[in-house]
Write a structure and sequence with these properties.
Blueprint lengths: L10 H17 L2 H25 L5 H13 L2 H13 L1 H19 L4 H35 L3
Helix pairs in contact: 1-2, 2-3, 2-4, 2-6, 4-5, 5-6
Length: about 150
């Protein structure tokens, strides 16, 4: 009877996400920060999901060992990719798309939800990079016209 409650334990993680989205909408910075925020929350959720599989281990050392080994292939590479994407959005966007393909290849149907989330994050990074490139080109072309008198 209480099985449906087990799927809602991650819900409190989304409350800060909703608050951050509301604040960013008011400041017109949602598009700039959305891929970064979604990537951070995806990594947190993936790490929290791996904690649920650790609970059956008898000792603290085995729990730590299993937690680290289960995150070594999923969360840690995404965190490193996020650090790269913060500086180089094009490289990060392509990296997230490749990570989504890698996730589908490794986990099959069971990893589709996370893979789609990774694809969305990569697409958002690429869209933001493209929009930033077009905005800077428009500013450079309009700025050079003003100075020609």
């Amino acid at each position: 009877m209480l099985n449906w409650l087990n799927s809602f334990w991650l819900l409190p993680l989304f409350v800060p996400l909703i608050i951050i989205i509301i604040v960013l909408i008011k400041k017109h910075k949602l598009f700039d920060w959305s891929p970064r925020i979604f990537a951070i929350f995806l990594i947190i959720i993936m790490m929290a999901m791996s904690l649920t599989s650790v609970s059956n281990e008898p000792t603290l050392w085995l729990k730590f060992k299993f937690f680290f080994s289960s995150n070594l292939g999923t969360s840690v590479p995404l965190f490193i990719l996020l650090m790269v994407a913060l500086k180089y959005e094009l490289l990060g966007g392509i990296g997230f798309l490749l990570a989504g393909l890698f996730h589908i290849y490794n986990f099959g149907r069971s990893g589709v939800v996370f893979a789609v989330s990774i694809f969305i994050i990569g697409t958002l990074f690429l869209i933001h990079w493209y929009a930033k490139q077009n905005h800077s080109q428009l500013r450079n072309s309009s700025g050079s016209r003003r100075h020609r008198i």
